[in-house]
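Field reference: sequence -> structure
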Amino acid sequence: MNISITKPRRGRPPKVSRENHDTKADLIYSGLEQLTETGFASSGVDQILKKVGVPKGSFYHYFASKEAFGKAVIEEYANYFANKLDVFLLDESYPPLQRISHFVEDAKMGMIRHQFKRGCLVGNLGQEVELLPESFRPQLIDIFLCWQHRIANCLKAAQSLGEISNTANCEQLAECFWIGWEGAVSRAKLVQDTKPLENYFNHFMATLPTN
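Structure field:
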């Protein structure tokens, strides 16, 4: 993400609305990196502001609180990830189950690219939910349901092509996919290897009911 930033004067909002938009976007992007690596509770606003070059006194011009900032970061990540899922799961040039496999391969490459320092922001926050503002809980639940719906639709497409049994409960299978996937991502970060992702996905595929 390459955005040219002009530093605002200390304690004052930028004079140009476009400048305001760019600075806010960069704060959110910096927050994505920080929260994905260290979580919300351990992340200080100071590190995020320093990286973007925004004085601390200006932070509350863009966000009412750290909680509001966190919610904006989560929303940005959710939109980004939903679009990523759509790229793979809606690609009708491949069979439905292969689309899920392509998503998994992309996730593996992403973890390697970031040296296993980042995982899934939503999954990470779910693990520290007791330390988060209560307003985060329904937001995180809705995001998981959104992702679950996308996997379920892909499984239904596989069902219509006879790739899996027509009696399979695709919504339940999709829920199980994400529960297991988040655990596999966490283990991959721990061991700094993509093997847990491979093992989990192979197990998930092997247990899909067939006709």
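Note: The chain has two domains: 1-63, 73-206.
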